[in-house]
Design a protein that fits this description.
Blueprint: E1 2-4, E2 7-9, H1 29-38, E3 41-42, H2 48-63, H3 82-96, E4 121-124, H4 130-138, E5 144-151, E6 154-161, E7 170-175, H5 176-179
Antiparallel strand pairs: 1-2, 1-3, 4-5, 5-6, 6-7
Helix pairs in contact: 2-3
Length: 181
């Protein structure tokens, strides 16, 4: 695949590329300036375009869903749909070599907030694609970190984040009981 911000061109080569010539028509000054500045980006697909397209679909499954901050909307609501969970669990298993085991006890576990102290660290992982890329890049088994802090005797979770499904971006503090919902 050959590309600039203004065009994408696919070319099939079986075997070596040397000896082949491609000519691209760049009639506008913007296209010419882009080529002069950064050239044409070249991407190779080891298994052919069909396998790469299949990989693209699997990648999209891991990221597309849970795109809004409205929990009740189907597929695009703030929840992670089942197909997205499956794609991210598969990615973790195949790429990160981290196998998530299904829980046998799915009852809600209640933590007494009086046991939580300022400075306690909580590791968070959401099966939304983004956390799995963070896990892949860092070698961690979590994709987000938060800290518990008490302000005037009230327990809060303090975090920095910029996800599209969270209504507040940047540094924030959220009351413990609200954060759990």
């Amino acid at each position: 695949m050959f590309a600039t911000p203004n065009f994408v061109h696919f070319e099939n080569y079986f075997g070596a590329f040397h000896g082949n010539t491609l000519t691209f028509n760049m009639p506008t000054e913007i296209e010419q300036a882009d080529i002069a500045f950064s050239g044409v980006r070249t991407y190779g697909f080891c298994h052919g375009i069909v396998k790469e397209f299949e990989g693209l679909i699997r990648t999209l499954e891991a990221f597309l869903g849970g795109l809004s901050d409205h929990p009740s909307l189907p597929i695009i609501g703030s929840h992670v749909p089942a197909y997205m969970e499956k794609a991210n669990i598969q990615f973790l298993s195949e790429v990160v070599e981290y196998t998530m085991e299904p829980r046998t006890n799915t009852d809600l576990i209640t933590i007494d907030p009086d046991l939580i102290q300022s400075g306690d660290y909580l590791a968070v992982m959401r099966l939304d694609g983004l956390d799995q890329i963070i896990m892949y890049g860092t070698g961690s088994h979590s994709g987000h970190s938060v800290v518990a802090m008490r302000f005037d005797g009230e327990l809060y979770i303090v975090e920095s984040q910029d996800a599209w499904y969270w209504p507040t971006h940047g540094l924030q503090r959220t009351k413990w009981d609200v954060w759990l919902t």
